[in-house]
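Field guide to reading this record: the first block holds the primary sequence, the second block holds the structure written as discrete tokens, and the final block holds curator observations. Each block starts with its own label. This record concerns Tetratricopeptide repeat-containing protein, catalogued under organism [Bacillus] enclensis.

BLOCK 1 — SEQUENCE
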Amino acid sequence: MTVLSSHEVIEDFIQFASTLPNRKLRKYETALAQYASNKLTKHECAILSDWLKRSAERNEDRNDAENPVLFSVFFVLCIYARRMKNHSTHKDLIRDYGELFEGELLYPHIVSLFHKQYDTPEDMELAIHYSRKAVENLPNQVGVLHCYVEAVVTAEERGLEIEQEVVEDAREKMDQIIRLDYQYPKFHCTKGRLLAILKQYREAKTAIHKAIDKEDSSSTDYAIRLNEYQAHLSRIEAAESSSLILAELERTRTELEESKRELKISMDKMQKDNLQSLAFFVAIISLTIGSFNLIGNKPFLDSAFLIMILTGCILVGYLCLGMLLQQKKFPWKHQTFILLIGLLLIAGPLYFHYLSR
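BLOCK 2 — STRUCTURE
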């Protein structure tokens, strides 16, 4: 393999940069990604990095005509570092040239891609923050939109608490992405992941299968992409199974709680009924024993009056006990008549007794 000189590498990139589409288009990013994958080597990256450093030091005016080329160098180096998982180099690029390129519409998108590589809550929040800024800059650029949605989905999958309105916004953006580019497989995969977060598992699996079907089997990274889709599909199926199990457990718990409540009500009612029954038998025994004690050697009429008064007192006392036990459920309409009889049994003998004196 021929090793190009520094001059040849720089000239080759300048010529390539002159053919790049408008930076507002997704084709600009995909062209740089293809260049990073197909043409860049570690040697050429070192040359471009050194050239970027020297050019940035000379470039005092950010509106200089050379700036578009410098930004393309910066972007392609970031893409290469991200693909090679060279996090330290990627971090250095963001740190060293952030101030120079922060005015570029795509700069927040690049920073978001950097933070998406990490699993820390801070990085995930920053990925969402910068991707939203990128969406504000380029609201119809499908790659920028997808970066935002994927940042939200990834953060949610990794346990970061995301506001519901952000998730809903991501869903709207996902629908927009599919409308703009229905054919790109990864977009359907991301849609499936988002639907899984919303617990729409059937639709989520359909979207993942669509991504698998649309993936080009002749591409060099087909196996990698397929494994990625299968991993997401397995995770969604596991989440669906867990959701069904949790739903069944919740249903069982609810049924147990309901059974427990009904059992408690039944036990309380049985306890009250038993107490009333016991009180009734005690009343009968009291009436019987009391009657014998009251009769003694007294005249028949006096004994009868005393027994009637005792019976009335027992009836009133029994009804009062029922009122205390049943409270709101006390059958007033049915028991009022018995209460009147009890009061008459008490008042009647007393009235006749005083009349006979």
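BLOCK 3 — OBSERVATIONS
The chain has two domains: 6-248, 265-356.
The two ends are 139 Å apart (CA to CA).
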